[in-house]
Prior knowledge:
2 copies of one chain form a homodimer.
Chain A: H1 9-27, E1 32-33, H2 35-40, H3 46-54, E2 66-67, H4 68-79, E3 85-90, H5 94-101, H6 104-107, E4 110-117, E5 126-128, E6 133-137, H7 141-147, E7 152-155, H8 159-172, E8 176-179, E9 192-194, H9 197-209
Parallel strand pairs in A: 3-4, 3-7, 4-6, 7-8, 8-9
Antiparallel strand pairs in A: 1-2, 5-6
Helix pairs in contact in A: 1-4, 7-8
Amino acid sequence: xxxxxxxxxxxxxRLSLYLRQLESLLGQGKRTVSSRELGEALxxxxxxxxxxLAYFGQFGHPGxxxxxxxxxxxxxxxxxxDREWNVxxxxxxxxxxxxxxxxxxxxxxxNVIAVFDTDKKxxxxxxxLQEGLTVLPMSKLSEVVRTQNIRLGxxxxxxxxxxxxxxxxxxxxxQGILNFAPVTLKNMTCPVAAVDxxxxxxxLSFQLAGGDNT
Amino acid sequence: xxxxxxxxxxxxxRLSLYLRQLESLLGQGKRTVSSRELGEALxxxxxxxxxxLAYFGQFGHPGxxxxxxxxxxxxxxxxxxDREWNVxxxxxxxxxxxxxxxxxxxxxxxNVIAVFDTDKKxxxxxxxLQEGLTVLPMSKLSEVVRTQNIRLGxxxxxxxxxxxxxxxxxxxxxQGILNFAPVTLKNMTCPVAAVDxxxxxxxLSFQLAGGDNT
Lengths: 214, 214
């Protein structure tokens, strides 16, 4: 049984926000922070901050508050971003290539070491100049996931292909999926995080348009 | 007063999911859909679907359900993705260039027509081969926003610069911000949609790591 069982999703999401804030404080040279200060920057009460952190352990020091460096290290360990994960990217189209340029993955320990596509025109070409990754055919997926110890798959395929490719990733042995395809993956047997950029765009355009319904 | 006032955020977000589902049904050639069918695909009850849509108008037809093409057009209009918005991208680093490759923006009517950066090594260079956009200095922001009728800014700058650039965008006259910087923009006077990819990555790695806190 995973240690994450029973911890509310919002508390885990706020852990990311606390980490962001702590990294900013570290950069400013601050050594300690109170739950009130940590909460204020995120529009949360000090009670909420203490309650969230209590799910994960005992971090505060009486009369001091939290030590910024200590809490940073502990939260990174809890979030699993203190280690490296080998990652396969599926889909070498526009979005996939855009994601390959994005250094944020490597910063969080997610190393894209293999790229796959179904398009015969793309398979065999090199798409990342820095890494020199060659696009592989989907038929190699199981073998590469096994031999290269790949634990995570990033889905950057069209909505219509997403479900099948996700099932192939699980079958090949990946333990988590980061889904950029604009479709909901239901009933998967591994954790899925979804990033649907079109939803964010639509939400913003709704606010710009003022919910026009004429 | 905007017509979007008083409509719960989750209902607006689900509107995006309904649209995704309707577009998929359109692709399959389906002409009508019931609230039950629409809800099932998204793990929602039919009552929830009807309640959500009722915030925006009367869409159903007795004995028929929803007409797929009609509801698609109406939701696109409500979300404002049936029109074009001129967009400025701020930040021509890795993430900014990655976003420029991403065709999803144009598909939703968001046309990136100007790119800005503070880095003197980047200003003046062309970064998008298809469009031939030249990176402009921040000093040109106000003028370009006004003369090119830019309504939206995409923030792809480091966390430390995000707040100042956001304020400059509002000052220059943009009406909404899509924030990719890993920082919360508080007390802005215009709508802000945040896409923090690192939060998604951390949430997934938390699940992979099983909340390890040893």
